[in-house]
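Listing S7. Sequence submitted for prediction.
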Amino acid sequence: MRDVVALGSPAAMETMAMLVDRNEDFRVLRRMPPMRRNLLPGVRPGMLAGCALFAETTGPDVIGDAVIELALQRFWADAAGRIVMTGRSHHWLEDPGRPIDPEVTRSTGIAPSEVLGRSIMDPVAASLIADADFVVSHDASFDRPFVEKRLPLAVARPWVCTSSDVDWRDNGLEGGSMAYMMMQMGMFYAPHRGSAEVTALLHLLDRPLPSGGTVLGAAVEAASRPSWVIDAVGAPSGAGDLLAHRGYRWNAHGGHWWKEVPSSEFDDEYEWIVVRVYGGTAKPRFRSVTWSERHSASC
């Protein structure tokens, strides 16, 4: 009996995991630990205050769908981009006031009975976002429009997106969903639960990069640089395939193709679209975008 207990002890399990992990035919995944940091107690000059965010909704349509889950956690980082302090984790479910589609329940794990009569604490949620230097999520182009619609006091904050603001292939990971990225980092967790998703996001942000610094530092640096959005208004109707192949996206509300490019690439991109798409007879619209505007519904 003592041998069985010893074999199942944490130390023995860790030894076995390390042995298996040394074999190139196997890979060990460990359960994601909580993210609790208190390396430098108290907010100090030079620290950045971030707000990690995760949201679930009744669907992808910002106008017709609603937020049914919101998770937020404040954190503070030093000048090197290392998370040195974390705040309390906040998590709310909210009744959308209408039935939740069974497909949404299957994809999010949120049943109608779980949200019945529940709501987000608006003052707390809005203050967590408004008092941060930036908000960060893994899919800001999806999350931001919904959050700003639900919490108007949180509008116009700087946003960071870990999906689009980090060159993952140059930094040792393939990108993808948060659950998949945690697997690449050797961890697993139960996805589609707000608090767990925010914890995973914090672990991802705190990851050191081969090029130096952390994911957080690289993402903030990239997101805070202004860029340009080119709106292909009035482009010929037959140019859709050409624009899509070039990386332009369709704006259903505006009825035109668009693309965001770094300032360093603007001149080449502008010349390309004027010559190849408009044939030199017209020009697209363009506008500067900062991280206070990027990913918003109006951008």
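Caption to Listing S7: primary sequence and predicted structure tokens for the chain studied. The first strand starts at residue 30 and ends at 31. The first helix runs from residue 2 to 7.
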